[in-house]
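TASK: fixed-backbone design
INPUT:
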C-alpha cells in the first residue's frame, strides 16, 4: 500500500466515524452532501479515489466539524474540548403547540423563538433544528400522540419518507410523494384521514425527520 492509499483509507475511516456520529446511513449522508449514493459507495469501498471537492462538501454540510481533523487527521472531530462541550451543552427550541401559518424558521432562528421552550440537545439524534410534540393521531400507529419529533431543514428530498412541510396553513407532518407541481401528503392512519396535495409553490420548506423520543 502506497502513501496515497494509506491516507485515503484513513480519511475513509474518519468519514465513517462522522457518519455514525451524526446519525446517518451512508445513503442519507451522500444525499446530505449533494453526492450520488452510488458514487459515494464506490469511494467509501475503495473502488475509486476521492473526487475533487468531496471534503469541501462535507464541511459545508457539517460546519461544526473540525477541518484539520477531517482532512489531516489532526485534533478531534468537533475541535477542542471547550467547543465540544459547548455543542453538547447547547439547546434547541421545542416549537409551541399552536403556531400560525408561515415560516417555521421564524420560530427556531427568528423573532418567534421566544415563544419556544429551550431544551437541551438530544445527543442521540443527528443534528437537528428543532423539536415539536405530536398532538394528533394522523400518523399512528408509526408515531403516537405525545411523541417528541426532531427535524432538520432539507434541500434534498427523499420522496416516500416522512417530512414536516412548512405551509401557509401551518406545519404538516406527512409521508410525502412527488406529483409534478404538487406534493401528495399521506397519513399512516388512512382509515380516518385521506390523502391531499399541496402545491409546491406554497411550501416554504421541507424538514426531514431525524429522531423520535417516546415516553413509555
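OUTPUT:
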Amino acid at each position: 500500500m502506497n502513501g496515497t492509499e494509506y491516507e485515503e483509507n484513513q480519511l475513509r475511516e474518519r468519514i465513517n466515524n462522522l457518519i455514525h456520529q451524526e446519525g446517518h446511513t451512508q445513503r442519507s449522508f451522500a444525499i446530505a452532501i449533494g453526492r450520488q449514493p452510488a458514487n459515494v459507495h464506490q469511494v467509501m469501498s475503495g473502488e475509486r479515489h476521492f473526487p475533487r471537492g468531496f471534503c469541501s462538501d462535507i464541511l459545508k454540510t457539517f460546519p461544526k466539524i473540525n477541518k484539520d481533523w477531517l482532512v489531516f487527521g489532526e485534533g478531534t472531530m468537533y475541535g477542542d474540548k471547550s467547543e465540544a462541550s459547548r455543542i453538547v451543552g447547547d439547546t434547541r427550541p421545542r416549537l409551541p403547540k399552536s403556531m400560525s401559518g408561515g415560516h417555521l424558521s421564524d420560530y427556531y432562528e427568528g423573532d418567534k423563538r421566544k415563544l419556544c421552550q429551550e431544551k437541551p440537545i438530544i445527543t442521540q439524534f443527528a443534528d437537528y433544528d428543532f423539536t415539536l410534540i405530536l398532538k394528533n393521531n394522523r400518523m399512528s400507529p408509526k408515531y403516537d400522540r405525545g411523541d417528541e419529533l426532531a427535524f432538520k431543514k432539507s434541500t434534498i428530498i427523499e420522496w416516500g419518507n416522512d417530512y414536516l412541510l412548512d405551509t401557509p396553513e401551518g406545519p404538516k407532518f406527512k409521508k410525502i410523494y412527488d406529483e409534478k407541481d404538487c406534493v401528495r401528503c399521506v397519513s399512516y392512519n388512512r382509515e380516518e384521514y385521506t390523502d391531499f396535495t399541496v402545491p409546491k409553490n406554497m411550501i416554504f420548506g421541507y424538514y426531514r425527520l431525524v429522531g423520535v423520543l417516546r415516553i413509555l
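COMMENT: Residues 187 and 194 are 7 Å apart (CA to CA).
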